[in-house]
Write a structure and sequence with these properties.
Elements lengths: L8 H14 L17 H7 L9 H8 L3 H7 L1 H8 L8 E4 L8 E5 L5 E5 L6 E4 H18 L4 H23 L3 H6 L2 E2 H7 L3 H16 L2 H8 E4 L2 E4 L6 E3 L12 H13 L4 H7 L3 E8 L10 E7 L6 E9 L16 H12 L8 E4 L6 E6 L14 H22 L2 H8 L4 H29 L9
Antiparallel strand pairs: 1-4, 2-3, 3-5, 6-7, 8-9, 9-10, 10-11, 11-13, 12-13
Helix pairs in contact: 1-16, 4-6, 6-7, 6-15, 6-17, 7-15, 7-16, 7-17, 9-10
Length: 459
C-alpha cells in the first residue's frame, strides 16, 4: 500500500488481518536451510570483488572472531536466506541490516541527543519481516555470545518482537504527522531506565557521546605538520592519501579533494551548502570502518572553517548495490550513494544535515557523505546482562517499528500482527534456528581460514 491508496483506517486494519489467512503468523517460525542453499562463504567472498584487496584480510579477521562478529558481516547471506521465507506483502523502507549494533546515539540538528538506526548501507524498499527477523536473530546471537542460557536468550528475542508489535499498534492509532515526528531521545531512555546502575551507565554513555565531535576527532586523527593540521598516518586503519597506494596516485591531492567536495555540495540542501562554503578541505585519508564494510573504500576529509580551531570531519563511504536488491526490485536511484541517503532520511526522524552523495569519475564507484563525528555513541552489547539486553531490545524494537511506520502502513501491519503473542513466539523459534545456522556458517568460514584457503589478518 502506498500513501496514495486512500482506504479507511478500518479497511486497512481488516486488510492486515485478512493476510493472516494467506501467511499465518506461526509460519514465520519455520526455517531450515534449503537443499540448494548457496555456500555462505562463497557469497561473502564474491562481495570482495569490488573491495580494496589489501583490506580484505582485515575484514575476514574481524568476521572470524566469533559467531557474533560473523553475523554482523553476513547481511548478504541472511538476505539470501530470507528471500525464501513467508512475507505478508506489506512493504516498507527496509534497513537491510537491522543488526542490534546498527543502532545508536547521535546529535539532531537541534542539538538533542537521539537514539535511532544508524547504518543504511543496505537500505531498500522491501518486506518489514526481513528487518525484524534480522534484528531478533542478532539479539539471540548476542545473548548466546554473552553467556545467557536458552530460556533467557529466548526471552530477550521475544522482547524485541513484542516491542515492535506494541509500538506498531501505538503508531496505528496516531495521526500521520505524529508518526512522522516521533523520536526517542537520550532523556526518554534515561526516564525509562529502572535501577540506579542502569541510569548511571546511560548517563555516562550520554556524556561520552557528547564528547565525540570534530574537535575531539582532530586530536585523535590529526597532528600538526609545519603549522598545519594533517591526518595521521596509522596504517592499516588510517592512511592519508599522500601515503596511499598507486591506485590513488595521479592528480595532486588538493585538486582531487576540491573536485570531490564541489560535486558533493550540489547534493546537500541549500542552507547546508551555504555552511559548507565556509569550509575548505585540508587533508584526506583512507579509514577502515566496521566489520562488513571493511574493504569498501572509505575516506575521511578534514576541513577547516574560520581558523584552525574550527575543524569539520566528513566521512565519504563507498555505496554498492544493496544485498536486498538480488531478491527485490532495484533502487529507483541510479546513484547508490543517493539510495543510502534517501533511505536514511526516510527511516530516521532527524538526520545528519551533511548527508550527500557523489561518484568517483575515475572508478565509477558511488559514495555517500556524512559527518564523521557528531555526538556519536553506541552501546557495548558484549557488556550487557539479560536484564539490560531486554531493555535494549525494547529500545531497538520500538525504533525499528517507528522507522517502518514512517514509510509503510502501520495500521495494516498492526492488523496483521494482532494483540497476542503469536508472532513473538514464532520469531523466537526462528531466531533459535537461524542462530544455530549462523554458528555452522561461522565454523565453515573459520575452517577455510585455518586451512589456508582464505587469508585473514587477526587484530
Amino acid at each position: 500500500m502506498t500513501a496514495t491508496t486512500y482506504l479507511s483506517a478500518e479497511q486497512r486494519r481488516e486488510r492486515g488481518k485478512a493476510l493472516r489467512d494467506e501467511v499465518p503468523r506461526s509460519s514465520h517460525a519455520d526455517w531450515s536451510p534449503s537443499r540448494d542453499r548457496g555456500d555462505p562463504v562463497a557469497l561473502l567472498e564474491a562481495q570482495n570483488a569490488d573491495r580494496v584487496n589489501w583490506l580484505v584480510p582485515i575484514r575476514r579477521g574481524r568476521m572470524m572472531a566469533s559467531p557474533f562478529t560473523f553475523f554482523r558481516g553476513a547481511a548478504r547471506v541472511m538476505a539470501s536466506d530470507l528471500s525464501a521465507t513467508p512475507v505478508s506483502g506489506l512493504d516498507v523502507q527496509a534497513c537491510g541490516d537491522a543488526h542490534l549494533a546498527n543502532f545508536g546515539l547521535y546529535a539532531s540538528p537541534e542539538r538533542q541527543l537521539v537514539f535511532d538506526l544508524n547504518d543504511f548501507d543496505e537500505t531498500l524498499g522491501g518486506p518489514w519481516e526481513w528487518d525484524i527477523k534480522r534484528l531478533a536473530v542478532s539479539f539471540m546471537i548476542a545473548a548466546r555470545h554473552n553467556g545467557l542460557g536458552q530460556s533467557a536468550a529466548r526471552k530477550v528475542t521475544e522482547r524485541v518482537a513484542r516491542a515492535y508489535r506494541e509500538a506498531m499498534s501505538d503508531f496505528a492509532e496516531r495521526r500521520n504527522t505524529d508518526v512522522f515526528y516521533a523520536l526517542l531521545s537520550a532523556d526518554d531512555i534515561l526516564k525509562a531506565a529502572k535501577g540506579g546502575n542502569r541510569r548511571k551507565r546511560i548517563g555516562l554513555l550520554d556524556d561520552k557521546a557528547k564528547s565525540k565531535d570534530s574537535r575531539q576527532a582532530l586530536h585523535k586523527l590529526a597532528e600538526e605538520v609545519e603549522g598545519q593540521y594533517r591526518i595521521r598516518h596509522e596504517p592499516p586503519d588510517l592512511v592519508p592519501l599522500r601515503h596511499a597506494r598507486r591506485e590513488h596516485a595521479g592528480d595532486p591531492l588538493r585538486e582531487r579533494m576540491m573536485r570531490y567536495f564541489t560535486a558533493y555540495k550540489v547534493t546537500v540542501p541549500h542552507h547546508c551548502r551555504r555552511l559548507l562554503d565556509r569550509y575548505q578541505p585540508v587533508d584526506m585519508a583512507f579509514k577502515v570502518v566496521g566489520v562488513g564494510s571493511v574493504g569498501t573504500e572509505c575516506f575521511v576529509l578534514l576541513l577547516e572553517g574560520r581558523d584552525r580551531s574550527d575543524p569539520l570531519f566528513l566521512q565519504i563511504k563507498q555505496a554498492g548495490h544493496s544485498v536486498l536488491e538480488e531478491h527485490l526490485s532495484p533502487s529507483p536511484y541510479a546513484n547508490q550513494g543517493r539510495r543510502v541517503v534517501e533511505g536514511q532520511r526516510l527511516m530516521q526522524t532527524v538526520s545528519d544535515p551533511f548527508l550527500g552523495w557523489g561518484t568517483d569519475e575515475n572508478s565509477g564507484r558511488d559514495f555517500y557523505w556524512r559527518q564523521l563525528r557528531d555526538w556519536k555513541g553506541s552501546v557495548d552489547v558484549e557488556d550487557l546482562d539479560a536484564s539490560d539486553l531486554r531493555f535494549y531490545a525494547r529500545l531497538c524494537g520500538w525504533t525499528l517499528a517507528r522507522a517502518h511506520a514512517r514509510s509503510g502502513d502501520p495500521i495494516a501491519i498492526s492488523g496483521y500482527l494482532g494483540s497476542g503473542d503469536a508472532f513473538d513466539d514464532a520469531l523466537g523459534q526462528f531466531s533459535e534456528r537461524y542462530a544455530d545456522q549462523n554458528e555452522c556458517d561461522h565454523a565453515r568460514f573459520v575452517e577455510q581460514i585455518d586451512s589456508g584457503r582464505l587469508q585473514a589478518e587477526k587484530e
